[in-house]
Here is the input.
Amino acid sequence: MRFATIIHQRQFEVVVERDGSLFRLPQLDSQQPRSLKSLITHWDEWQPLLEQATLTDSSFKESNVRFAPPIPNPGKIICVGLNYADHAKETGAEVPALPVIFNKFPSALNAHQQPIFLPSISNQVDYEGELVVVIGRRGRFVSEADAMKHVFGYCCGHDVSARDWQKGKPGGQWLLGKTFDTFAPCGPYVTTANEINRPDQLDIELRLNGNVMQKSNTSQFIYKLPYLLSHLSKFCTLEPGDLIFTGTPSGVGVARNPPVFLKPGDQVEVEIEGLGILRNPVLNDPAESEMMLASQHAS
Ligand code: ZN
Here is the structure.
């Protein structure tokens, strides 16, 4: 099954995608799921009801709905750095002995078709197409053998990265460069794990203004998903709706000669086999533009 969260009458609504149509959730029981996170949390109860239900209300169309991030309120967004052999090589980084782990705040989440805002305090905003794992089952100290049972599904993700705030900062912290508002587009859909037979063999591609900039396959992962989930669960409880960005392949802008950074008017697409296309325009941050105008009037 494939789910999206849309904004309808100023509220989030979970919809099911089937053959290009979007269906409202049927009436399941008195405790109708109000968010994808709650649907995932109670998946054992709701999955059989949903599978038996007939989907009839297709009043939304993909072309005219406003998408929200599939999970607008995750407890955690965990990211893996340098997880593709080809990307580690292009950055000149040693293949790390342990995975590089960092995070983004939920305020960085962004939806399909919504703009990535370029902050005025960076002039090195780069793209990173990534497979995102959505956690289903709660777990701590999960073994590698059991790890994949904790996956609800997958979606396309974009780990937008301000290189000038990521690299060379005090303590080597990447956080600020990675967590500007709008820097974590996800979606448009979460596809359930049972529909993705081999998450370790998915083609992944990122296009900038139609040009292919990244093209790889998740078979290039240095750290495979069972290891990553097991490793992370040694530190923190994996909870339903948590998002894990699994790293990006080669072809990022900063490693190019000359470097390529995002600019207003760009269009970025992340496409992953079986998961669809996540598309985002790039704009200057309008909130900052307003502030700049206001300060010019003041002076
Ligand atoms: Zn990344």
